[in-house]
Design a protein that fits this description.
Organism: Cesiribacter andamanensis AMV16
Largest sheet: 9 strands, mixed
Order of helices and strands: HEEEEEEEEEHEEEEEEEEEH
InterPro entries: Conjug_transposon_TraN (IPR022298)
Structural class: mainly beta
CATH architecture of the largest domain: Sandwich
Protein name: Conjugative transposon TraN protein
CATH class of the largest domain: Mainly Beta
Pfam family, one: DUF4138
Number of domains: 2
Strand content: 35-45%
Number of strands: 18
Amino acid sequence: MNPTSLLLTGLLLAPLAGQPQEFSKVSAPETSSPDTLFVTDTETTYLLFPREVELVDIGRPGDYFARIEGQSVFLKARSKQSGSTNLLVRFGASYYTARLAVAEGPAGRLYDLRGIAGGEGVSRLGSAGKVAEDPAMIRASLLHLRELPHRHATPRNTRDGLQLRLSQLQIRGEVLYLGLTLRNGTSIAYVPDFVGFTYLERRGRRFSRNNRYQKEVRPISELAPDRIPSREEHTLWYALPLYAMSSRGRLQLQFREREGGRALRILLPARWINQAPSFPDGHGY
């Protein structure tokens, strides 16, 4: 380096001598609708939406766990080898789409998506969503179902002094209506904490965790008591988004208790749903 270059370098660095240097912190841009959601197999990742979630669809359901709770979706990878896949969430009259991937490090966090309505990653429903947008009509249908005679006595599940059975099954438009009778034959009241509905499709010869396709859905409307007192029987009514299953499909219904370990599950075969009676004309809805 010649003397002139040394002189210029000294003049440039002299004002910085003895002063702490400051560096700008660069962070990943925050977007209201991320392209990829990172999850792990050790921690739960939470998605929060502006309205109640009605359906969660994972492209590779054998690689991830998903659960609906009100306006939230809980996600977790089954293993570190889970591959990336598509995620679709329906809330109200909107759909949210993203990619799911396993993070290399800790990724348990909350994705607050309450401001995404009409934004990136969200599409609005067309005419197919009109039924779901009319809660008054759906609730009126549930009220009418309570007056109809019970048409089904099976399937049922009896366990721990409790019995859950299907008592009504109807279809109107794009909505599936269910009546479930829960009888508490014990001395302890039964308080449901979680009621889950999952459409299952078999991909091979047997139903297994890695050999099935599943859609978890949330009721559009419901008429159900908060608790089933001791020695009493009550019917719970639910309206679900309709999904046309193949002959291999099933609808899984799960009940879990808030303070206790009693749980019930029944499976409805696809043929029952695909051939369910429709509401006759003249109901005035």
